[in-house]
Amino acid sequence: MKTKIGFLMIAFIVAMTNLNAQDKAEVDSELLGLPGDNLDLYATLDLFQKSKTIEEFEASLNDEKTGINNLDLNLDGEVDFIKVVTQKEDDDFAFVLQVDVLEKETQDVAVILVTKDKDEKITIQMVGDEDLYGKDYAIEPKLEAPAVTANPAYSGTDTVVVKSEPATVVIIESEPIVHYIYSPVYVPYYPPYYYGYYPPYYHPYPVISVNIYFGRNRHHRNHYHGGHRGGNTVVINNNNTYNNYNRNRNTSNTVNKNRSEGKYKRDNASESPAIKPANKPISKPSTKPSTKPSTKPATKPSAKPATKPSAKPAAKPNNKPVSKPASRPKGGGKKRKN
Questions:
Q1: Would residue 169 count as lying in a domain?
Q2: Stated pTM of the model
Q3: Both ends of the chain: CA-CA distance in Å?
Q4: Each residue's pLDDT tens digit, 82-121
Q5: Is 142 exposed, middle or buried (0-12, 13-18, 19+ CB in 10 A)?
Q6: Domains in the chain: how many in total?
Q7: How high is the pLDDT of residue 265?
Q8: Domain-embedded: residue 143
């Protein structure tokens, strides 16, 4: 019986090991080995479509609870604040996601394009910045239902009532964010934040491993197509809006340097973010406790007791008793009057 149980345990451990190895290999195969691995554009675009305002989208994107933003471009071990800048031209919008890497360096992360054509049809696409996602990384919502086509060669007895219909797309016009930006009361949002100055709700939090991050957000990919999976077939709908944005695109020398030195990729793209959080917690506690407590207690307690107690008791008790009793009897003191 014990032998059978032991055999089953070994088989279970081997199976779990193989499963974990297979899952890790699958994750690594889908990772870009670029900073964009830590901001899933599928999850980001899904959040954008569900938001009611641009301000709400920006706040939710930077909320640790949503688990969408895991981007750390300056490699300080903490997730960067992403601000959303609005660019508008007639009925076309470009919502640019940006990170202030340093005081004088801004890096564009991605751009969300919302366009309306001459037939009042609205489309949404998202394009990742080339420095973070590689070239031509664009995604858009998937079709909700496949096209239905009647079979012209059907020879059965049943009456065919199905007509050929094109595929139906996600009804973008019904989404809250679309209602908001195309409403008469809409005012373009321009965030007042910059490097070192962030909204009160924002609290920096540590990055997590890409393996964990990818696992949390991979389900969003079922609702979109594009990216680099199986070859990108997404075509930008509004080249004018995208080209206008692209001409004023922001890039950071720090990001380019880190990327060229392989600091975002390391040995394995799925392990690089896991190394960074360990550096920050170790550096701060190790410097403050080791310097301050070791210097102050060692000098102050040993100096004060050694000098003050030995000097004061030796001087004062010897002087006062010898001088005062000898002078008072001779002079008569303050009680004598002439």
A1: yes
A2: 0.66
A3: 120
A4: 999 999 999 999 999 999 999 999 999 999 999 998 888 9
A5: middle
A6: 1
A7: 74
A8: yes
